[in-house]
Structures are given as structure tokens and as C-alpha cells.
User: Which sequence fits this backbone?
């Protein structure tokens, strides 16, 4: 019988080798590979498509297992990934820009009957975006402005929610026509959609 740790190691070794068939063979069909806070992929097709796109965007992409700890059917795999966004493929809708990445993350792999039945992948997406040049460097003036903008957006959302809680029969948004009908629902949708 193959252990949980062996399955987790086999999976990451296959990914490090860009061996999609080997990586997919570790998955139970219908299992979920969840990138916490971002997206969920359904095996086998979703997992195959994601990593095929990743390898097309980062042809020199590498995985290194830094630590692997197993308890019963769960393995926590702390890893390091490196690569160059050289393309020809895009990544998350962005065109290749030659940026290099070097980041660490951790996956918690669940194995049942020698197949991965669930995975929770944790990584710092802000750090990844900074390394790709999609966000300003941490601590820069641009980063401070972005942080203030985020606080302003949250304050606007809170104000809209307070107004919605008053259950007004109409509301005027600046110079626009008044909002009527189910005003509360419209304001709650606006608060959720505010950038």
C-alpha cells in the first residue's frame, strides 16, 4: 500500500517534471484542487488545464519540496516555485512580460484509496502579483496609495450599507435619476460591486 506522503511526493515530483499525465494519475476524478481565496479546479480536466497553462506561461517553472509532514490521510507540503513569465502562454489573462518569480507556498493534500481527493493550496497572491509587476512594490508610494484607495472603497461600501439598512423608499446617487423600487436590494448590490 502506498502512503499518503508517497502520493503527495509523487504528485509534486510529476509537476516539477511538467509531467501532466503523471500528476493527473494521482487524482481521483471529481476531486477538488482549491487555491484558497482564488479558485477551485475539478480533477482531472481543471487540474490538467491549469497546469498546462501555467507551464506554457512559465516554461522553466520548477517546484521544490521544502518540507512534507503527514498525519493520517493529510500531507502538508511546503514548497518553493520558481520560473520566468516568458510565455508563449498567458497567465491569468496577462501577457508574458519576462518577470521572474520565486515564492513559497503550502498545499494540504488529502488522500483516500491512494488518490488525491482534495487539495487546499495556500500562497501569497499579493507577493506573486508584485513579482509579476502587476502590483507596486511593497512599501512604495504607489503601494501606500493603493492601500489608501482600498480603505476608501471599504468606507464607501460601509456608507452604502448603512443607507440600505435605513430601508429608504428612494435614493439619489449624485446627479443621476433617483433609485426607486427595492432600494435596499439595489444599494446592497451596489455596495458589493463597488470597486
Assistant:
Amino acid at each position: 500500500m502506498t502512503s499518503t506522503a508517497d502520493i503527495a511526493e509523487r504528485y509534486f515530483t510529476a509537476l516539477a517534471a511538467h509531467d501532466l499525465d503523471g500528476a493527473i494519475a494521482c487524482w481521483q476524478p471529481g476531486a477538488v484542487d482549491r487555491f484558497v481565496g482564488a479558485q477551485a479546479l475539478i480533477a482531472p480536466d481543471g487540474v490538467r488545464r491549469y497546469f498546462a497553462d501555467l507551464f506554457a506561461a512559465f516554461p522553466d517553472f520548477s517546484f521544490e519540496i521544502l518540507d512534507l509532514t503527514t498525519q493520517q490521510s493529510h500531507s502538508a507540503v511546503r514548497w518553493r516555485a520558481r520560473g520566468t513569465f516568458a510565455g508563449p502562454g498567458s497567465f491569468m489573462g496577462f501577457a508574458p512580460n519576462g518577470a521572474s518569480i520565486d515564492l513559497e507556498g503550502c498545499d494540504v493534500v488529502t488522500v483516500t484509496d491512494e488518490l488525491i481527493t482534495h487539495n487546499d493550496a495556500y500562497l501569497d497572491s499579493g507577493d506573486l502579483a508584485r513579482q509579476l509587476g502587476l502590483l507596486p512594490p511593497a512599501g512604495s508610494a504607489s503601494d501606500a496609495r493603493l492601500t489608501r484607495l482600498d480603505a476608501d472603497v471599504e468606507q464607501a461600501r460601509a456608507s452604502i450599507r448603512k443607507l440600505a439598512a435605513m430601508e429608504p423608499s428612494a435614493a439619489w446617487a449624485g446627479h443621476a435619476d433617483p433609485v426607486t423600487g427595492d432600494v435596499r436590494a439595489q444599494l446592497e448590490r451596489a455596495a458589493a460591486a463597488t470597486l
